[in-house]
């Protein structure tokens, strides 16, 4: 096996002695041969199973010839939009076009189309009518059944229908893609590959589908948002590989989309094998003259230690994509990769991260999950930790100690995020000391997301008192260690359930904290999350209770502005929000006020400067003169003070 980048041209194929690829992987990202990129894992895994895989990266979707550069594959095309949904990649939550694409050489925007998977598949179909097309990655996985599309503001079909693809490999895809490849290689027609876990297919008959749960039809969901909410929650409760059922979504004209149960999680040995594949660990050298691929900077010196998340935040799609069962790599696997990092010429001694979706999850939440699956109707951490939860950081602590003892390693950071409620739930209480003493770079980023318990309950996050307890323990621990380290909270505005009163509550918390975030994340309705379902339908699919949803752009702007109330640019929005929320008590000169009154209003700046308080006359004028004299003296003192310093 040649240890080099996979072919991207006919010349590359000739060097390898190939006349035809078995599979051609079409991706919306630049070709980065690193295990943080889905196209690298899937292509290298297929290579390890004896298949010849070529890469077409960011083809020109306006030119059919761009999809023909490697010819027609023997077994089929694999298509992915990239590491991000192409619409999230292109647009901010306000639907403004982003300026840069970190997954494109030079960070250039516009090298992939909107709805990339669908466009690429239609491009393939225009050139190769009968070639099997299998789609995967985050974009296909989260759009595998009917879904709300924020950018077009409508319910859309399963991506399988609009893309004209034959099959979806959803989730992480390692197990299903090998089974698909072997089935095609054995001569089975793509239309007959209906039996593989972790796949979705189309059919015009349910005669052979005997054990499925029938979802509401697309037409029913389109006509009634409650039907979509009910359907979504059925899907959500069937994301577990041990108890998940086969699901059928009916469309018109005897067309059905069938989702097979999820593929089983990888064992530790299987995870180790995936990350030991012969990656080049960098972007393709042809991108060097274009400035390289910016995304590599964040992951080049980081280690992926796990997959899955039993935190199950409502606004996160991980449950739908990777599932709730934690899959972890062994210490030896991670140490071997860390040693490779230390041999890189630009390694400075710092491992930037050791984690995954949640850094401190290293094993399933409880013993039964690996044999009986995750509970369908209850969460592991929400609304409070389950009594069966195994909150134990012992293995993670041991791993971190081994990594930081490696030669050439100066510091091992944790940046992918910890679950503070999981840290508090650990009866050992050893991890917080280890974290503060060795793995924080002055600031620790955590994600309380909000302070209103009403909003937190919709987010699937712990109550605010839990975060406050963590803040106290973090501060106390740093005090005992004699270290000055701070918490940086991630906060979200305009999440379903948040009205102006809840947004004001968050602003008051920040006032008392003396902290104003530089950036605020407005809730982004991405495909296939509980929060997106609430945003679209106005119902919480877990309870079918109505939920207040801030959808008006102006209200969303006010909620966002309240979090950054100190920014002068936000004054008008904050003032309006406080009036609408009935909280004008927060407009004034008291230290508890968020903003001062505007000049020209009763009690405003100009009135106070002029001494125009109710009942004032000549006394007001005298007061004005006195104020001006004091201000002038203060200004002169400041000037002399600065001059003295210089």
From TrEMBL:
Key words of the record: 4Fe-4S, Iron, Iron-sulfur, Metal-binding, S-adenosyl-L-methionine
Domain of life from the UniProt record: Bacteria
Domain Radical SAM core, residue spans: 294-569
Positions of the UniProt region annotated as Disordered: 599-646
Entry note: cofactor: Binds 1 [4Fe-4S] cluster. The cluster is coordinated with 3 cysteines and an exchangeable S-adenosyl-L-methionine.
Cofactor(s), names only, from the UniProt record: [4Fe-4S] cluster
MF (Gene Ontology): 4 iron, 4 sulfur cluster binding; catalytic activity; iron ion binding
Compositionally biased spans, kind Basic residues: 631-646
Residues that, per the record, bind [4Fe-4S] cluster: 309, 313, 316
InterPro entries reported in the protein's UniProt record: Elp3/MiaA/NifB-like_rSAM, rSAM, rSAM_horseshoe, rSAM_sf, UPF0313, UPF0313_C, UPF0313_N
Pfam families: DUF3362, Radical_SAM, Radical_SAM_N
Keyword Disulfide bond appears in the UniProt entry: no
Similarity annotation: Belongs to the UPF0313 family.
HAMAP family: UPF0313
Full protein name: Radical SAM core domain-containing protein
Organism: Lacrimispora celerecrescens
